[in-house]
């Protein structure tokens, strides 16, 4: 029956993370997966999360199925965080928001919904993008193309080429964009570039699908959501996936959400209904525990403040580590490659190291990066930055691209 099943080659991120766990070498360094580790190399339990979890556990409740759309208090708190408490679209009731299994679940539910109602549309992702984007949309039945994004020569954005390509897409094309802290490059659009791009998407009748997995890791919680607020301001229908894996350090609880900005409250009600039908067809309804924690933190002023403060201090630590590795690589790495450690934002730097060089880093030094050259700078600390910088310098000197 199953003899014809071919072997799974593995996932470029998750399988590498599993390989790291099996690596017996002492002093190995995991800069592969997008996870924030603290100065001691531990996965933090945020103080507000700890308190909220204690609160949730102190009130043991029966565990019925949640509604297919998820926990109502969570959905409302998500909408307020992502769109702003005073968002006019929120007041008009024209955003459909539902709880999903992490950001990936939001992308999958959104993909199923679009596939059903826009069957002629293609999906366009940035070149490069998070590996799982293409996978999710192709598995949902889409043809996936790319638009220009990253400029390898400068370590920056090819905005003019990106805009020109998107301007030429057929109407109703789905354009997948990263709200902030672009994964894998750490290169984002400026506010002015967002405003211009959104104007073009509106004019060309395109459907933006924004993925916001790193809210709070760029310029701040509100600033990172600029693109989403601008979509509302310019009155552009769109889908928005968001995740609390990173900014709540709640990876395993799979807390995410999908929101759809509609033209009217009536359309939003119908869209929400069809999104819940996609949930039913995939996994029926989402789990309770993580959603109760997130909702409690976001709606309790003291916990909310504690969470925001701790998130800000995580960002400061990442910025410090960017400076530390930059200082250690100076003189050993060409200037053009060096500048991006400081210029790129969020958890990642796109180092410019080739797959061969990344393989050498892993095999010879136990330093793990994604083979695209993506480094998770959020996992650097005082204890591993020297070894990482020395390994990179050695590999650059010895291993051709
Ligand atoms: C990453 O990009 O490393 C994270 O988002 C984890 C994942 O699921 O790929």
Q: How do the strands and helices of this protein lay out in sequence?
A:
Layout (H helix, E strand, L loop, with lengths): L13 H9 L6 E2 L16 H12 L13 H12 L4 H4 L3 E7 H16 L5 E5 L3 H9 L4 E5 L1 E2 L4 E2 L1 H9 L6 E5 L12 H13 L3 E6 L13 H8 L4 E6 L11 E7 L3 H18 L6 H11 L1 H29 L5 H9 L4 E3 L4 H11 L1 E2 L5 E3 L8 H14 L3
Parallel strand pairs: 1-12, 3-4, 3-7, 7-8, 8-9
Antiparallel strand pairs: 2-10, 5-6, 9-10, 11-13
The chain binds (2S)-2-hydroxybutanedioic acid (LMR).
The site of (2S)-2-hydroxybutanedioic acid has 6 residues, from loops.
CATH topology (fold) name of the largest domain? Aspartate Aminotransferase, domain 2
Which CATH architecture of the largest domain? 3-Layer(aba) Sandwich
Distinct small molecules: (2S)-2-hydroxybutanedioic acid
Helical content class: 40-55%
Strand order of the largest sheet: 2-10-9-8-7-3-4
Number of domains: 2
Largest sheet, strands/sense/barrel: 7 strands, mixed
Please supply descriptive tags for the structure shown above.
401 residues, Aspartate Aminotransferase, domain 2, seven-stranded mixed sheet, two-stranded parallel ribbon, 13 strands
Can you give a write-up of this model?
The protein is α/β, with parallel strands linked by helices. It folds into two domains: about 10-45 and about 305-400, Aspartate Aminotransferase, domain 1; about 65-300, Type I PLP-dependent aspartate aminotransferase-like (Major domain) (Aspartate Aminotransferase, domain 2). About 45% of the residues lie in helices and about 15% in strands. The strands form four sheets. The chain has a seven-stranded mixed β-sheet. Helix 5 (about 100-115) packs across helix 10 and helix 8 (about 190-205) packs across helix 9. The longest helix has 29 residues, at about 300-330. The mean pLDDT is about 95. It binds (2S)-2-hydroxybutanedioic acid. The site of (2S)-2-hydroxybutanedioic acid (LMR) has 6 residues, from loops.
